Request: fold
Amino acid sequence: MKIKTLLIANRGEIACRIARTARASGITPVGVHSEADANALHVREIGHSVCVGAGPASESYLKIDAVIAAAQSVGADAIHPGYGFLAENPDFARAVEAAGMIFMGPTPQTLERFGDKASAKEAAVAAGVPVISGAEGARSDPRQIAAEVREMGLPVLLKAVGGGGGRGQRLVTDEATLVEDIEGALREAKSTFGSEGLLLERFLPEARHVEVQIAGDGKGHVVHLFERDCTLQRRHQKVIEEAPAWGLPRTLLDDIAHDAVRLGETLDYRGLGTVEFLVAGEEYFFLEVNPRIQVEHPVTEAITGLDLVALHLRIAEGAGLGLVQDDLAISGHAVEARLYAEDPAMQFAPSTGTLTTLSLPDGLRIDSGVEEGDAVTPFYDPMIAKLIVHAPDRETALARLATALDHVAVEGVQTNRAFLTALARDPEFEQMQVHTRWIDGRLDELTQAGSLARPELWKAAAAVLFVATSRRDLCADPWTNRDSFTGWRLGLGGDAIEAGQRVTLTDSGGASEELRVGPVKHKDRYTVLSETGDAATLTAREIKPGRWRLSEGDTVHHINARLHAGVIEMDTPEGRLVFRPAAPLDFAGGDVAADRAVASPLTGMIVEIKVAEGQTVAEGDVIAIMESMKLEISIRAAAAGIASNISVSNGDMVDRGQVIAEILAPEE
Reply:
């Protein structure tokens, strides 16, 4: 059956990605959106979208009836679920088929088999695929789980049977936190996946994560599109993915791929899927099956030359795979980095806000679901973009990725850009001397701000460009003194640091400094004094709109720069830098009492209040647990004292910065 109209039951970058291939295939794409996404990029790019409910996913993208009704209203022949949301929901697949439309994914029976990790493990055992040892079946009784964990011996990994994307996993390493870990895993499993069932498995401390992309026609013909390495993870969530898996014997990888294909063949697998494994030494173990398209599918597309969405459409139309295993070969090496709106300084908590600046580099593939001016809301995954590099070899691919990340600029939210850059240049990662827990053991080192070779030069340049850009449109220049202009006259007789125009700059790391910028008797030439008294003399000339010639002595740099949305953005040889200029009064000292106000770090829902009114708390005690963008965050006291004025309850939605309690100083 030829698909004419395709409803894309998703949002963000994957919705945009599917729509592009649909159009190229002669298919009309139609989107869906929540009220919060009414102006989202996927709505604008697809051009025709149907609202399916309110902002929270449970009231929109996860509403099966609303999505089916939207598809019927536009006469859709098929529905593509993307990844996440309803992609692995067998009830949704049944509803799509019952409505006479094509579900672009496996059969409902396959989704049931692989959607539950316990049954997926049973299927792997039946197919002769090696699995990780542990307790058989799922558990939901906390006391039974605790007893079996103690019997197995620590460390033990708790995994929600319905989990995915790194969610619903807790590593138990300490008897002292066993009860807390079990309660948290059960709570997360229920709130995220609707089931409290947990698997208990032996933990492999230094394993690599290797996954195999498979495609099947639903009639027993299954091929693999080689493997991806997703070892770089933070708390079980993938950070950087690549293909092929570098540094492992091809014979081992071929064995893994053959097992993945055999597992797919046992169920007459239909559509795209990913079979995930852990590799420890010369052994490998089945982990799970993701019966859908993956976030990291672009690296497979890069090394195979295939369009996986086009292949998916072909399968859905009943035309088969159109290829056999011998048609496939690996070309070069591809790496993908996930750029997220999250704050590494706050344990990678999601960061919400408006993207006042979003500049992404040229020369590589970028899949994104947002543009400059769009908002990152608390309702959905905070991904900004995926940066994908394809090169002849891994060394070149990593170098190009690092350079590309240098030239990313985002303002309005915090991001993991610097963290990704540190990973791309890390010597141990370059040699693949890593495992799935490697990042977690080096977070402090990897999240330290990277150092620039000439930080003072670029800060001085930003101050000069701010003054020069701000001046050029003034009709009356208060600095002018006959045919040249000099700010030094304003400070005549005083300390040099007090002369010149005051410019306070805040860099992307939050560090602020006040500089003095004063012109000298040469056109476009400025002297910049720092707070320490260090001076720099720069010449800044705009040679064409947005393009500046910056001279320091005999050294000349040509850079792109703009004053935009309240920031100075500069594309320099050391990367894309952003500074926020502001009036000095904006940085006046805050009220010391603020330390005693417990505020929400972001927008989200209060899951549990952990203290009572009048309770004595110590510095660092957990005051409340909140959930935002599917992440649980502990809000802690910044000072010791007495909990007071608790203004929220379990289940309340709170805004970023909202005070939820106060910690009164203990009486002397």
About this structure: Residues 473-498, 583-593 have pLDDT under 50 and may be disordered. The radius of gyration is 28 Å. The chain is about 25% helix and 30% strand. Residues 5-104 form a domain with the Rossmann fold fold (CATH 3.40.50.20).
